[in-house]
C-alpha cells in the first residue's frame, strides 16, 4: 500500500512538471554549443544519459532548471560554483539526499532520503558536466 502511494505521488509530480525535460536539455546544450562554437555533445555521455533517466523519474525539475534560477539555483550556476573541487560530487550527493538550506538563499532544498547514493552521485556528476567551459 505504501509503495502504491509513493509511486502515485511520484507520477503526479512528474505529470505536473510537464514533459519537456529532453527539450530543455537539448535546447540548453545546443545554445551552449552555438555560443562557444564547440561540437561537444553531452547527450552521448553515459553520465548524462543515466542522469536524464533519474531526473525524469524524480522531482528535480520542480525546483531546478539548467540555465535559469527557479525555486532553486540553476544547475549551471551550481556547476560553476563547485567545478574543480575534489569533494564536489560527494558534497552535492549529500545535499541531494539530506537536503539543505542557506547556501543559495532562504528556500530549503527538500531531502531525497529514498534516493540511492549511486543515483545522487550520478546527478551530482551530471550537474558538474554543465559548467561553463
SSE topology sketch:
Blueprint: H1 2-16, H2 21-36, H3 46-56, H4 60-63, H5 75-82, H6 88-98, H7 117-129
Write the element-wise H/E pattern from the N-terminal end onward: HHHHHHH
Give the radius of gyration: 15 Å
Distance N terminus to C terminus?
47 Å
The CATH architecture designation is: Orthogonal Bundle
How would a crystallographer describe the biggest sheet? none
Would you kindly provide a written description of the structure presented here, covering whatever features stand out?
The protein is mainly α and 133 residues long. It has a single domain (2-129), classed as Cytochrome c-like domain (Cytochrome Bc1 Complex, Chain D, domain 2, Orthogonal Bundle). Helix content is 59%, strand content 0%. Helix 3 crosses helix 7 (117-129) and helix 6 packs across helix 7. The longest helix is centred in the first third of the chain and has 16 residues, at 21-36. Mean pLDDT is 79; it is low at 8-39.
Summary tags:
mainly alpha; 133 residues; Cytochrome Bc1 Complex, Chain D, domain 2
Describe this structure in a few short sentences:
This protein is mainly α and 133 residues long. It contains seven helices and no strands.
